[in-house]
C-alpha cells in the first residue's frame, strides 16, 4: 500500500514512504527508484524480472513494480535538463532502453557512492534526490542565483493564468520581454521548457485543490484541465498513479 510523504517541485515529484504495487504502465517522466529496506521488484514489458535497490526507468518504458518496502521514488520531467541527462545514462549502458537490466545498470552509481546509505541515515527526501541527480545525471544542480527579473515576473504571474490556456507570448508581454527570450530563460535558469513548467504548475494546483476535499472535477477545472478525466490521464501519464491516491494517501510538504 502506498503511504508516505510527497514533495512537488517544478519538474519533479518526490515520494518517500512505503512503495506499493504499480501494475503495468508507462509514463512521460523519468523515474528514479531507491529502495531503502527490502529490494524493490520490477518487471519490464518482455516479462524479465529483477529485484534490487536502485533503478532508473526512462520515459515511455512499460514496467510493473511490486513494492512492499520503504524507499524513495522521484518522477523527473523527461524534457528537463536532468531528465535528458538521466535518459542518456540509460542509453550509455548499451542495453535496450526498455530492459530492466539497463535500468538497474544505469543506477549502479547510487550503490557505489553510498547514496542509499545516506537515505538510510535519515537524509530528507529532497536532499537525497538532489544527491541522486548530481551522481546519476553527472550534472551540477542549477546555479542558485537570483532569477532574471523578467523570469521572476513570469513565474509570479503564471499561477494567475492557469484557469485558461497559457501562451508564452501572452506571459512574455506581461513580463516585459520577448517570447523567444523568455522561452530560453525557462530552459536555462529553471531547467524546464515553458510548456513543461506550465504542466507541472497545473498538476500542483489540481492536487492542492483535491487535498482540500473538493471533487476531482472541481480540482481539474481550478487548474485549467478540461475535466477530471483529463486530470486523471495526465497524472497517469506522468506518475503512473491516479490523482485521488496522491491527494489522500500521502502527506504533502
UniProtKB/TrEMBL annotation:
Pfam families: HTH_18. Keywords: DNA-binding, Transcription, Transcription regulation. Signal peptide: none annotated. PROSITE patterns: HTH_ARAC_FAMILY_2. It comes from the Bacteria. Coiled coil: none annotated. InterPro entries: AraC_XylS_family_regulators, HTH_AraC. Residues 152-249 form the HTH araC/xylS-type domain. This is AraC family transcriptional regulator. It comes from Promicromonospora umidemergens.
Amino acid at each position: 500500500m502506498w503511504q508516505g510523504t510527497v514533495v512537488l517541485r517544478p519538474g519533479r515529484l518526490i515520494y518517500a514512504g512505503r512503495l506499493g504495487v504499480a501494475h503495468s504502465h508507462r509514463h512521460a517522466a523519468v523515474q528514479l527508484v531507491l529502495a531503502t529496506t527490502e529490494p524493490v521488484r520490477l518487471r519490464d514489458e518482455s516479462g524479465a524480472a529483477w529485484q534490487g535497490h536502485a533503478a532508473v526507468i526512462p520515459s515511455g518504458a512499460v514496467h510493473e513494480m511490486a513494492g512492499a518496502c520503504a524507499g524513495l521514488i522521484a518522477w523527473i520531467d523527461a524534457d528537463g535538463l536532468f531528465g535528458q541527462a538521466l535518459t542518456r545514462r540509460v542509453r550509455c549502458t548499451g542495453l535496450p532502453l526498455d530492459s530492466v537490466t539497463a535500468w538497474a545498470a544505469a543506477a549502479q552509481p547510487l550503490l557505489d557512492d553510498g547514496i542509499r546509505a545516506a537515505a538510510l541515515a535519515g537524509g530528507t527526501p529532497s536532499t537525497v534526490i538532489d544527491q541522486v541527480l548530481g551522481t546519476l545525471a553527472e550534472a551540477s544542480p542549477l546555479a542558485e542565483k537570483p532569477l532574471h527579473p523578467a523570469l521572476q515576473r513570469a513565474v509570479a504571474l503564471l499561477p494567475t493564468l492557469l484557469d485558461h490556456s497559457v501562451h508564452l507570448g501572452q506571459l512574455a508581454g506581461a513580463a516585459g520581454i520577448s517570447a523567444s527570450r523568455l522561452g530560453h530563460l525557462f530552459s536555462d535558469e529553471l531547467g524546464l521548457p515553458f510548456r513543461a513548467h506550465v504542466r507541472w504548475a497545473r498538476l500542483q494546483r489540481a492536487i492542492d485543490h483535491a487535498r482540500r476535499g473538493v471533487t476531482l472535477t472541481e480540482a481539474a477545472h481550478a487548474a485549467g484541465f478540461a475535466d477530471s478525466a483529463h486530470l486523471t490521464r495526465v497524472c497517469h501519464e506522468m506518475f503512473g498513479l491516479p490523482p485521488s491516491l496522491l491527494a489522500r494517501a500521502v502527506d504533502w510538504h
